[in-house]
Amino acid sequence: MPTATVDPDAASASFAEVDIRAALASRPRRTPNYEVEVRAMTALADELARNPQTILQSLVEAALELCHADTAGISLLEREANTEVFRWEALAGVFAASRNRTIPRNASPSAVCIDENATQLMHLADRCFPALRGNPRSVETLLAPLHCRGRPIGTVWIVTHRCDRQFDGEDERIVRSLAAFASAGWQLWQSHSVLERNVAERTEALAQTNLALQQEIDGRKHIEAQLRRSEAYLAEGQRLSQTGSWAWNVLSGELWWSAEHYRIFGLEPQTTRIEYPAAMQWMHPEDRAFVQQAFEKSIRERGDFELDCRIVRADGAVRHVHSLAHPVFGAVGELSEYVGTIIDTTERREVEAQLRAEYARTEMLLNCIPDRFFGIDPHWRFTFFNKQAEEQLCLLGKNPRNLIGKVLWEEFPNAELEPQLRRAMAERIVITHEYFSARLGEWLDNRIYPSPDSGLAVFQSYITERKRSEEELRLAHRELARVSRVLTVGEIASSITHEISQPLTAIIIHGSACIRWLRRDIPNIDEAAISIGRMVRDAVRASNVLKALRSLVEKRNLSQPAPVELNDVIEQAIMFMNDELRGHQVNLRTQLRKGLPAVLGDRTQLEQVLLNLIINSKEAMACVEARDLIISSDYTAQGKVSVTVRDSGTGVPSKDPERMFEAFYTTKEGGLGLGLSISRTIVEAHGGKLIATNNDGPGATFHMVLPAIPA
Description:
Layout: H1 15-18, H2 23-26, H3 34-50, H4 55-66, E1 71-80, E2 83-93, E3 102-104, H5 110-116, E4 120-123, E5 140-148, E6 151-160, H6 169-207, H7 213-241, E7 243-249, E8 255-257, H8 259-265, H9 288-301, E9 305-312, E10 318-329, E11 335-344, H10 346-368, E12 372-376, E13 382-385, H11 387-395, H12 400-403, H13 408-411, H14 418-427, E14 431-437, E15 442-450, E16 456-462, H15 464-487, H16 493-518, H17 525-553, E17 562-564, H18 566-583, E18 587-592, E19 599-601, H19 603-620, E20 628-635, E21 640-647, H20 675-685, E22 689-694, E23 700-707
Parallel strand pairs: 18-20
Antiparallel strand pairs: 1-2, 1-6, 2-3, 4-5, 5-6, 7-8, 7-11, 9-10, 10-11, 12-13, 12-16, 14-15, 15-16, 17-19, 20-21, 21-23, 22-23
């Protein structure tokens, strides 16, 4: 806050040039946050009952938070050396150190506010009021009048020093509401001060009663008049703050309640006589004993009394109250009475209970989800971890309870999600991100959401298994594509035959020509050599064609043998072929024996064999109506695992079924005859056998037997 000395050389402007009250109606009004506001007002009401002398400072701190301002304060109009000045009675924010300084009345924008008795909004107010010039500069200043008994005596104001922060109608509503609360708090504080002063005056007057009866009567009249005014102020303050007061004379046992105290208990002061300990009847039966014990202990120890308890009103309603009392001692130190207050806290407790229930329900839901969830406030402080997130933090060597309220970057200086978190916080957008965490050894799927409190909500899921499955599925699709490529070789067999027949025919022609050149009476060596060169050229051409075919049907870069669960291989192959089998109206059944031992081999090659057998069975049933396919697995007495594929198709050649496994032998039109040959080669490379037999009924069965890994 700038000094209170007016700078006569500062550039000046008229009030009309800094007045922007009209902008409040046109600016977009942000959504009220009643939950935060109610919490703040409840805290202020509680402090008003406990420490009314600090209520104004607490109020400006609340204004700073609720309006997101940079500076907030309360200015009170006073007289100083026969001059009216404004004193900064309470300050919070950037210029908090200037509290209690004064500024001449006409040098302050508060003068305009109380003269017009209306809310004011000013832009760069120091152009019109140079005494306010300081660093940083006040960009916008919003003021509301503060009243005492209907007369404006000061202002509640907030200031922003940022060009990007503009006050709106919601800020005006909050400031006016806080100004009304400040008025009540100020009057209650003044009432308490007047009451204390009057009690002192009354005590002094009573001490002079031995001097003169007339002086006592005059003094008593004067004191009574002041007490009536003080009591009126106190009653109004109690009504506004819903705070009752009471006093108990230790010597006489007389108990006095204020009107508000009676109202809290649902009693009529004109018809109800209250005495202690009979007043304990209004305590809740479950609380009565400990209230009486606590009060009697305070009397014995001559100390303060404070507790929360329940009362039962005259109409039977149960209310929660907070009671506070202080002992009063006589001239020689004897305990003479207790003076205290009582506040009805039922509504506050109900709101707190609802908030706790809502919080518990939200916490339960967050703990039920499998994701790891944590919350971050706008200042990058941790606010919440669900159970799964706490477990993850323990794996990282962190104590979740100690992290609440700590800054993320201080606890995790090299956070892997820093770019995504900073962008989501700055741009207020949803960001999803997958990455591999080296610290956890897991793949994580992160979803970052802006939260209503201007912070972030982060959900994390472990997706390592999904990533592994996706990779396996990708490899399986690649293998299926290769198998499909092998199975479609038959479709290009005619073109391959054409490519091979041309160089072979040319070799024959050039060979015949070479023989003729050599059988002449005089052999023509040069021409023969030319023919031989052409033969070599065409032979290389045929070799290249065969190499291309071989690269098409051979598997490259086989992995090292590993344990393979054949039931898993069967289920994977069925998953690949399921849609195609349904499309061809094949009725598929499986009979898989559980607990089969694993075999040692290449999973992909065995999947290739099984896919080839299923495809052959599907094609063999293309011309029949009943299309049944049964795939089964079993464990033989010889310590081997068997897999059978049984169909209801056309069967295998009955004369020589072994020919089906010869390379390039096929019974299908346009087929090349490589599938079963390659399949048998793979099975035999695994130390097993692959045979085919005809069924008793329609169709054929292919048997694959592999040695199991010893237990």
